[in-house]
Design goal:
alpha/beta, Rossmann fold, five-stranded parallel beta sheet, three-stranded parallel beta sheet, 30% helix
């Protein structure tokens, strides 16, 4: 029996994600069990179908049979009484829970040591497993004009964006008044060029008390440094090579000796 046992609570809209999870699980000897609402007409017939009025005792028996070590909740059922919420409450101790907010984030990221070859292999694997027709995914397609009005949107929805399609969005102004402090130091690494200088000017104008720019070749015009006189802020340009530990330690020591405590934004 596989050591890793994954329980996934999902809906019919997750069927293609479920297929991908199953394919990867087989390759890594991981057992995956899927549960869903028995009223979901798009569910896979192999999934465990649960009635929304299932008793806690029946849920407990199901969990005892599955013995999950990880629970993946793909539905938005976080309200008390929702199936996903009730399953989560009955999970055995030591079972890790992963929710939609953890799986689908606004910021993209790559795992450490994830190089081009790894990405290409994953893309090739995804393409090889994609054997779908337009009729298979029709219920997941959202028209471009419906993005702002359609809610809730499913995590695996597909946006139909034609080449001539236009989309209006709202750009919110960043409130930078509470970001920076007069009694803190902000370190900009490798930003002694125009972008770094522009960023430094913006930080000082919004309350940064001390900004240190670093670069291997910190050549900055003296007139630019003089422009900060009268602002009450300190701007320093320091030589530092991020590939040289001793160089980093030297700069940090200098900043600690002559500047206020550093702060992350």
């Amino acid at each position: 029996m596989p050591r890793n046992r994954v329980l996934v609570h999902c809906s019919g809209s997750d069927r293609f994600l479920a297929m991908a999870l199953s394919r990867r699980a087989v390759a890594q000897a991981i057992r995956v069990t899927f549960t869903c609402d028995n009223q979901d007409g798009r569910r896979d017939t192999s999934w465990i179908q649960l009635n929304t009025r299932i008793t806690d005792l029946s849920l407990h028996k199901m969990l005892c049979l599955v013995k999950p070590t990880l629970f993946l909740e793909l539905t938005a059922g976080t309200a008390p009484g929702a199936l996903g919420h009730r399953i989560a409450l009955g999970l055995p101790s030591g079972c890790t829970r992963i929710s939609l907010s953890t799986l689908f984030q606004r910021a993209s990221s790559l795992p450490l040591l994830c190089g081009p070859k790894v990405l290409l292999d994953r893309l090739a694997d995804a393409v090889s497993g994609a054997r779908l027709s337009s009729s298979d995914i029709r219920d997941l397609v959202i028209a471009l004009g419906s993005i702002n009005t359609l809610y809730p949107r499913h995590a695996t929805s597909i946006i139909r964006w034609p080449s001539d399609g236009l989309f209006e969005t709202e750009a919110r102004t960043l409130d930078s008044r509470s970001i920076f402090s007069r009694d803190k130091t902000y370190l900009l690494v490798g930003l002694r060029g125009q972008i770094g200088q522009s960023l430094c000017e913006w930080m000082v104008s919004n309350g940064a008390g001390c900004v240190c720019l670093t670069s291997r070749h910190p050549n900055v015009h003296e007139r630019w440094l003089e422009s900060f006189r009268g602002t009450g802020a300190t701007v320093k340009v320091l030589a530092m090579d991020v590939l040289d530990v001793s160089s980093i330690e030297r700069v940090i020591k200098e900043i600690r000796a002559s500047c206020p405590p550093s702060r992350r934004c």
